[in-house]
Amino acid sequence: MNDEIFFDQARDVLAACRTKGLLVATAESCTGGLVAGALTAIPGSSDVVDRGFVTYSNEAKAQMLGVSPALIARDGAVSESVAFAMAEGAVNHSRADVAVSTTGVAGPGGGTATKPVGLVHFAAWSRQGPRLHVERRFGDLSRSEIRKRSVEQALELLMKLVEEVKAVA
């Protein structure tokens, strides 16, 4: 995936974080590190991006982010609750002030009647308290297109969160 397609969006997120003195972490499943990749494609991003977690398996979500296996068993990995737990875990397991997470079904297989291909949950979490969630149903698109749109949505949600967070003293 071409990093330049997210350049303006990622640059704006980094600038807003710099202005407020915020560090960022990402917790990604279906996007496989593409959100962190979009942010770190911008020169100088190391003053804002603390780290990215690629937690593709349920075991990785539990081990790296502290997501409860019982929560995953109850709600499924592709759920609002797990998206929030991933974002919270990214903040709690890093120096970041804010984090964004992605978990979904990028396809072409793996979908069910209740969790179809194209369903992605996004969460953004702040140490200060603002917490945001978006559920998107991208529909029957290609895997690449679902992942591309997921990166765009994740960066948009992260920007919205950063706008709500107060500057770090």
TrEMBL record:
<dbReference type="InterPro" id="IPR036653">
    <property type="entry name" value="CinA-like_C"/>
</dbReference>
<feature type="domain" description="CinA C-terminal">
    <location>
        <begin position="10"/>
        <end position="161"/>
    </location>
</feature>
<dbReference type="Pfam" id="PF02464">
    <property type="entry name" value="CinA"/>
</dbReference>
<dbReference type="InterPro" id="IPR008136">
    <property type="entry name" value="CinA_C"/>
</dbReference>
<protein>
    <submittedName>
        <fullName>Competence damage-inducible protein A</fullName>
    </submittedName>
</protein>
